[in-house]
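Researcher: Sequence recovery benchmark, item below. Answer with residues only.
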C-alpha cells in the first residue's frame, strides 16, 4: 500500500508538471502534453506502487529531501541547479511548442520521443528493482548496510539511472514537439554527466568493493564512449 504522504508528494508533483507545461503553453489544448503526462505519471505511479510493495525501505529513502546534512556540498549545488533548470525547461517547451509556435516537429519524431520516454520508464523500473540503495542524493547509506550492486543493468554500466535520465531528457522535447527543448536537454545532461563523474569518485573512495567493481564494469554511462 502506498503511504498517504507519498500520494501527497505524487499529487503535488503531477500538479506542478501540469501547471508548468499548460501554464506556459497558455492552453489545455495540447494533446502531446496530455499524452506525455499520462505516460510519465503512469510509469512513475507503477514504479512507486512496486516500491511500496517490494521495497518500502527504498521508497522511504527516495521520499527524503534532496538536500541532506550528510550529502556532499557539490551534490547539493548540482541538485539545486537541476531543479531550477528543470522548471525553466518545462516552461520553455510550453512557450516554444504551443504559445509562440517557434518549433514545427514532424509527427514521426514525436512518436520517436514517446518511444524514448516509455523506454526510459521501463529502464527506471528495472533499475529500482535491482538496486535497493538508489537514494535521491549521493551518500553512503551505512545504516542500511550499503553495498555494491553489480547485477542487471549495473552489469552493463555503473550508473544506468543516469543513462536512462539522459534518454528521457532528449525524448521529452521530441514528444512535446519542441526543438528548443533539446537545448535544455543538453544542459540537463551536462549536469548529470558532471554528477556521474563526481559520484563515481565518491563511491570509489568511500564504498567498500566499488573500486574493484569499476575494473569489472568499465563504463559509467554508455559502453565504449564513457
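Model:
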Amino acid at each position: 500500500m502506498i503511504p498517504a504522504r507519498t500520494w501527497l508528494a505524487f499529487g503535488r508533483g503531477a500538479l506542478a508538471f501540469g501547471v508548468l507545461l499548460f501554464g506556459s503553453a497558455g492552453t489545455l489544448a495540447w494533446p502531446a502534453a496530455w499524452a506525455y503526462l499520462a505516460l510519465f505519471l503512469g510509469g512513475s505511479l507503477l514504479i512507486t506502487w512496486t516500491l511500496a510493495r517490494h521495497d518500502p525501505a527504498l521508497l522511504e529513502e527516495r521520499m527524503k529531501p534532496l538536500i541532506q546534512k550528510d550529502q556532499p556540498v557539490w551534490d547539493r549545488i548540482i541538485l539545486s541547479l537541476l531543479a531550477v533548470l528543470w522548471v525553466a525547461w518545462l516552461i520553455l517547451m510550453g512557450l516554444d511548442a504551443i504559445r509562440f509556435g517557434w518549433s514545427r516537429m514532424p509527427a514521426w519524431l514525436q512518436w520517436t520521443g514517446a518511444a524514448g520516454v516509455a523506454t526510459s520508464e521501463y529502464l527506471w523500473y528495472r533499475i529500482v528493482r535491482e538496486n535497493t540503495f538508489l537514494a535521491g542524493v549521493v551518500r553512503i547509506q551505512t545504516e542500511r548496510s550499503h553495498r555494491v550492486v553489480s547485477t542487471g543493468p549495473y552489469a552493463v554500466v555503473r550508473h544506468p539511472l543516469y543513462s536512462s535520465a539522459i534518454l528521457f531528457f532528449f525524448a521529452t522535447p521530441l514528444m512535446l514537439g519542441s526543438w528548443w527543448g533539446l537545448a535544455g536537454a543538453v544542459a540537463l545532461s551536462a549536469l548529470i554527466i558532471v554528477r556521474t563523474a563526481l559520484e563515481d569518485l565518491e563511491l570509489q573512495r568511500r564504498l567498500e568493493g566499488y573500486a574493484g567493481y569499476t575494473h569489472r564494469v568499465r563504463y559509467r554511462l554508455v559502453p565504449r564512449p564513457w
